[in-house]
Amino acid sequence: MKKVDSFTAFEKIRSDPNNAGRTFSVSKDIFDHFSEKLRQSTREIGAKEASEIEDLIGADPGKGAGTTRDATCEKCNTAFSLSDHVASALLAGKHTAPEMASFFQGNDYWLTVDTKEKRETICPHCYRRGVIIHCCYIFSRYAYA
Ligand SMILES: [Zn+2]
After folding, report:
1. Rounded Cα–Cα distance for residues 142 and 95 (Å)
2. The organism sits in which domain of life (predicted)?
3. Which of 23, 45, 123, 132 has a 20 to 30 A CA-CA distance from 93?
4. Which three-class secondary structure state does DSSP give residue 85?
């Protein structure tokens, strides 16, 4: 996928409703611009949760990873931690562990176009299928805008 390296191009992508929830490779400048705003609402994870995530995907989630807004399982009412989000993405088959590791450790920066749409997931606490809000976390090389 071609890297988006102009603000004008990314704003155009962002304003197209067809791109809601889609993830794009972007330049560091664009990533920094949008992720900076999210940093103000980020609840960063601690060492314990970082090692839980490392156990799940085989990669350290890196600096600055955390949740940016609440997401709760509609079936058992558990509020998702960042490692819950990672576990549910794996359970639901949305991403493989190496894919997720590449989001944190590769050389690329990624932004998902923010959306109010819900997404399907599997809760890592009750293992039931449900829906959850879309964009609610940030990593050193992954955020939403
Ligand atoms: Zn649940």
Report:
1. 14
2. Bacteria
3. 45
4. helix
